[in-house]
Design a protein that fits this description.
The structure is a single chain. This protein has 82 residues and is mostly helical. It has four helices and no strands. The longest helix is centred in the last third of the chain and has 21 residues.
Length: 82
Protein backbone atom coordinates (compact mmCIF):
# COMPACT_ATOMS: atom_id res chain seq x y z
CA UNK A 1 0.00 0.00 0.00
CA UNK A 2 1.43 3.36 -1.00
CA UNK A 3 1.82 6.07 1.59
CA UNK A 4 0.39 9.26 0.11
CA UNK A 5 0.00 12.67 1.67
CA UNK A 6 -3.48 14.02 2.12
CA UNK A 7 -4.33 16.99 -0.01
CA UNK A 8 -6.68 18.31 2.67
CA UNK A 9 -5.51 21.28 4.62
CA UNK A 10 -6.26 21.90 8.24
CA UNK A 11 -8.83 24.57 8.87
CA UNK A 12 -8.07 27.27 11.37
CA UNK A 13 -10.45 28.98 13.76
CA UNK A 14 -10.33 31.97 11.40
CA UNK A 15 -11.47 29.76 8.50
CA UNK A 16 -14.39 28.49 10.58
CA UNK A 17 -15.32 32.03 11.61
CA UNK A 18 -15.25 33.23 8.01
CA UNK A 19 -17.35 30.27 6.86
CA UNK A 20 -19.85 30.94 9.65
CA UNK A 21 -20.23 34.59 8.61
CA UNK A 22 -20.45 33.71 4.92
CA UNK A 23 -23.16 31.10 5.50
CA UNK A 24 -25.19 33.50 7.63
CA UNK A 25 -25.03 36.13 4.90
CA UNK A 26 -25.89 33.64 2.16
CA UNK A 27 -28.96 32.63 4.18
CA UNK A 28 -30.20 36.19 4.58
CA UNK A 29 -28.80 37.28 7.93
CA UNK A 30 -28.91 41.01 8.55
CA UNK A 31 -25.60 42.86 8.64
CA UNK A 32 -26.05 43.81 12.31
CA UNK A 33 -26.61 40.16 13.23
CA UNK A 34 -23.44 39.08 11.41
CA UNK A 35 -21.53 41.92 13.04
CA UNK A 36 -22.71 40.92 16.51
CA UNK A 37 -22.01 37.21 15.98
CA UNK A 38 -18.45 38.05 14.92
CA UNK A 39 -18.00 40.30 17.94
CA UNK A 40 -17.29 43.34 15.81
CA UNK A 41 -17.79 46.80 17.25
CA UNK A 42 -18.52 48.56 14.00
CA UNK A 43 -20.28 47.80 10.75
CA UNK A 44 -17.43 49.13 8.62
CA UNK A 45 -15.07 46.32 9.57
CA UNK A 46 -17.68 43.69 8.78
CA UNK A 47 -18.46 45.32 5.45
CA UNK A 48 -14.79 45.54 4.55
CA UNK A 49 -14.53 41.76 4.63
CA UNK A 50 -18.01 40.62 3.63
CA UNK A 51 -19.71 43.30 1.49
CA UNK A 52 -19.05 41.30 -1.67
CA UNK A 53 -21.37 38.59 -0.32
CA UNK A 54 -24.37 40.94 -0.63
CA UNK A 55 -24.11 41.48 -4.42
CA UNK A 56 -27.86 41.82 -4.95
CA UNK A 57 -28.65 43.82 -1.83
CA UNK A 58 -29.64 46.96 -3.73
CA UNK A 59 -31.86 45.06 -6.17
CA UNK A 60 -33.50 43.11 -3.35
CA UNK A 61 -34.16 46.28 -1.34
CA UNK A 62 -35.81 47.92 -4.35
CA UNK A 63 -37.95 44.84 -4.95
CA UNK A 64 -39.08 44.76 -1.33
CA UNK A 65 -39.88 48.47 -1.44
CA UNK A 66 -41.91 47.98 -4.62
CA UNK A 67 -43.80 45.09 -3.02
CA UNK A 68 -44.55 47.18 0.04
CA UNK A 69 -45.78 50.09 -2.08
CA UNK A 70 -48.10 47.74 -4.01
CA UNK A 71 -49.46 46.37 -0.73
CA UNK A 72 -50.04 49.93 0.51
CA UNK A 73 -51.88 50.89 -2.69
CA UNK A 74 -54.15 47.84 -2.36
CA UNK A 75 -54.91 48.73 1.24
CA UNK A 76 -55.73 52.32 0.27
CA UNK A 77 -58.34 50.96 -2.18
CA UNK A 78 -59.78 48.66 0.49
CA UNK A 79 -60.09 50.62 3.78
CA UNK A 80 -61.12 47.44 5.60
CA UNK A 81 -57.50 46.20 5.21
CA UNK A 82 -55.89 49.17 6.95
Amino acid sequence: MANTKSKCTENTFHDLRHAHASLMIRNGAHLKVVMARLGRKDVETTLRYYAHLWPNADQEALQKLGNEMERYKKNMNDPGQM
